[in-house]
Amino acid sequence: MAEIRAFRGMRYAQSAGDISQLCCPPYDIISEEERKAFLKQNEHNVIRLELPREGEDVYAEAADVLNRWRDSGVLIHEDKPAIYIYEEEFNAYNTRKKIKGIIARVKLEEFSKGVILPHEFTLSKAKADRMNLMKATNCNFSQIYALYMDEEHTTLSTVDALSQGEPAAKFTDSDRITHRLWIVTDEAAIAKLCADFNDRKLYIADGHHRYETALNYRDYCRENGISKEGDPQDYQMIFLIDMQHPGLVVFPTHRMVRDLKDFDKNAVLDACRENFEITAFKETSQLNAKLKEQYKAGNKAFAFYCGKGEWYLLKLRDLAVMSEALPDLSPASRQLDVSVLHTLVLERALGIDKENMANQINLTYTKFFDEAITAVDRGDFQCSFLLNPTRVTEIRDVAAEGEKMPQKSTYFYPKMITGMVMNDLSI
After folding, report:
1. Does residue 39 lie in a domain region?
2. Does residue 230 share a domain with residue 306?
3. Long-range contacts made by residues 374-382, C-beta under 8 angstroms, separation at least 24?
4. Taking all residues of the chain, what is their mean pLDDT, rounded to a whole number?
5. Quick check: pTM over 0.85?
6. I want to staple 2 with a disulfide (CB 3.0 to 4.6 A). Which of 11, 12, 197, 232 is the partner?
């Protein structure tokens, strides 16, 4: 099953500056304005490696910066192989929460082996960018996020025991997320943690692009004589979290519709009446509460927002219609809220097919409730669909069937910070 290893992580030396000014959020959620702001804070910010934009060849520039920082001591390697304990403390649903797991090297496995399982479809453009960066730098600067099952929470108990003291690094970012990092180099503790995963599968929560890129990079290195089986290129830095961790938070990703010819909300509602119970509302103060009510009841439901406070609760009458609509998929995939929305509403009622969704021709995604409302009110979008979050057990069940959810089905919160520890594949 899953094979994990300690590694000599690459981290910032104290002389590089305040760690809070050296780290950054994941590359795919950073605007150009934000990127420049990080560089103004500290010229050594990891954004220069993770999201290079300077120079004629941005990837070659990232490699040059990396080499200079290693040579000058801005970046240093752990003296001994380590497993890193990483914790995030954050606000979600008006509550202060914590999530804690371990960062380790994990042996790459093809999805077909059933050891490491995906749950979402990916886009080729993002994978090409990450591949070019890996070819140039031979590094992972950010972690993939994966879940594992551990009914007895044995690993989490070990992790909690190993992180009783002061962290090696700690800071709170502008989103009020506190990041903490402990370094475990004790060989017995490392052996215990590694052994825990001998009979486990891993479920990718976030970072599908990076995982598929790592597989491609491993193969590229073998084919070009850069590495052989068992070398560091066979491994990827992954953040591993107990699937039943009490701090685990998954936000929904809402859908906003734009530029549809002859859009008519009444026609959409008429097309939905056969399969949905429809309740009309004139203002949005109860929208979240009504969705939560349906979530707790286990119903398949979402909100159809039309602007100026007007919205409709759509509740599926009978899940059996999904067996007829998607006969080739497992019950795990058919019962997802996003599957119901995409199949019965976006495709059938609005005429937005799968290719259109993948290319985001008439569809835009947002994790922000307020944006899904105000963007329609401003007239930027014709309507929006607000969803409940996907359950972690649903993610597990779909992945276990060897199937994938539609893009943007989940949003694990918070994202991991980039820069506290990095994976240099040259050692």
Report:
1. yes
2. no
3. 375/256, 376/256, 376/305, 376/306, 376/307, 377/307, 377/308, 379/307, 380/258, 381/256, 381/257, 381/258, 382/257, 382/258, 382/259, 382/260, 382/263
4. 95
5. yes
6. 197
